[in-house]
Amino acid sequence: MAKYIVLINFTDQGVRTVTESVKRAKNSVSTFEKFGAKKTAQYWTMGQHDLVIVLEAQDDETAMKAVLAVDMLGNVRTTTMRAFTADEMEAITAKL
Hints:
Number of domains: 1
Strand order of the largest sheet: 2-3-1-4
Oligomer: single chain
Number of strands: 4
């Protein structure tokens, strides 16, 4: 499974209802799964981003669908980055 780091910021709507953030995070598990992805970790953060999640999906298209489905709810905006493990990076760099 490919791994993704998703950086999340609350929208104005998300900030107005921030007290429901944990509930929404729990509900997002089923949304991600509906589109074939799995949320393996989530953290609320201070600084430039409000949350960070770790997501697994079979491919980029699956990850994109899952993240967009959450974005469509209007509480957050996301930046998604493909992440590589040390073993994956070794395989990549072995071909250089």
